[in-house]
Amino acid sequence: MTQKTNYFKLGLFVILSFALTAAMLIAFGAGQFFKTETLAETYFNESVQGLNIGSEVKYKGVKIGAVKSITTPTKVYDIASNYVLVTFSLSEDCYVGQTGRKPEERMKKAVDKGLSVFLSFNGLTGSAYLETDYKKNGPDDLQISWTPENLYVPSRSSNIKQVKDGISRVMETLGSLDLQEMKNDLSALLKSLNITKVSAQAESLLKELRQTNRDLAKILTSGQVKQILTDAGASVADLKQIVHAAKAPIKQTLADINTAAGSFKRMTTGLEQGYEGKLTEMADRMDTVLASLEKTSQLLENMIWSNADVIGKTISNLENTTDNLNQFTQELRDFPGSILMEAPPRASTSRKEK
User: Fold this and answer.
1) What whole-number distance in Å separates Cα of residue 59 and Cα of residue 68?
2) Strand ranges across the sheet with 115-121
3) Is-contact 166 157, C-beta < 8 A?
4) DSSP line for 120-153
5) Pairing state of beta strands 128-134 and 56-59?
6) pLDDT tens-digit profile of 104-114?
């Protein structure tokens, strides 16, 4: 009886141990069991050496998934193709610069905006992983004649392949060059050029330039050129002296004109009360005279620079004009009525008798 009881307790302990272990596994791994993932696939027209199952899928260095399988479209879709099919999973926290509730929705938006996937390598280890990013030029144009089973993400060539393709194109271009023909063309060009003749022509040109410089130096240092420069300087000095001498008379003439204008204005002001209509007409005439005198003064200033020879005559005429204006002003002051009458009034008889 005691032996049976011990077997029962031992079996119960084993069952409880298995149950407790299963509960712990479920508690710690439930997140992984119930975690959903979105599958996507892409195709490469290059070697994927270094890429393995479990390799990371990144977006600008941030992990967003992992590689699930590496195969060929021929095996999966039963179609002839030399591409490499890479299937990778996207985690729930896969954000590639887009918004959406599900990673599949966000990835579709990113693909529409130009997201593509390409191979990248980890430093010195040589291990590869998948990098995703947006590219302005767009992904490579791979021709796909079948419908992918999973979300399709376009691919583009890796940087290593682009460098390799560039080097290959350069080598092909260099290989297509006909170096022998280029050498023959260069030899023919050198033969066609008469180096001796070209050198002789260049030397002759230099001699002509030296002779021209010597002739020009002789002309500039000749006595005739110096005399011309001296005469020009003397003429300029004489002209400056004439202008300086004419400044004082012209200023005096302008002052006299301004004085006469002031006298005319004062006279018209005194005669406005008795001869309103005539004075208005006279004032208009005086304005015309003043405008003419102003234009005359401007013309005189211009004539100083353009007609130095006739400055003396012009000054003499202006002095005569000033004397006449002074005389006319004096007569107007003594006999204001002479503007309306032909001659000054005669002296009365009583004044004679006195």
Assistant:
1) 17
2) 115-121, 128-134, 56-59, 62-71, 84-90, 38-44, 151-152
3) no
4) EE-TTT--EEEEEEE-TT--------S--SSEE-
5) parallel
6) 999 999 999 98
pTM of the prediction?
0.41
Kind of pairing, strands 38-44 and 115-121? unpaired
> Does the CA dihedral 14-16-17-23 come out positive or negative?
positive
Residue found by looking up tokens 């271009």 in the block: 173
Q: Which residue blocks in the chain are alpha helix, DSSP H?
A: 2-34, 73-77, 103-112, 159-176, 179-192, 195-220, 223-271, 276-306, 311-334, 349-353
Length of the chain equals 354
Quote the Cα angle for 269-347-263, to 5°.
20
Q: What does the block give as tokens for 83? A: 């591409």
Residue 124 CA, chain-centre distance (Å), reads: 45
Distance CA 260, CA 253 (A): 10
Among all chains, which residue has been given the structure tokens 């004539």?
A: 303
Give CA–CA dist 340/79, Å, rounded.
126
Contact 332, 338 (CB under 8 A): yes
Helix (H) or strand (E) holding 152: strand 151-152
Place of tokens 């400044």: 247
Beta-carbon contacts of residue 109 (< 8 Å; ≥ 6 apart): 98, 99, 100
Measured distance CA(158)–CA(118) in Å, rounded: 6
- List, as one string, the DSSP characters of 192-223: HS-HHHHHHHHHHHHHHHHHHHHHHHHHHTSH
Q: CB within 8 A of 26, min separation 6: which ones?
A: 33
pLDDT in tens, 56-95: 999 988 999 999 999 999 999 999 999 999 999 998 888 8
Structure tokens at 287: 């304005």
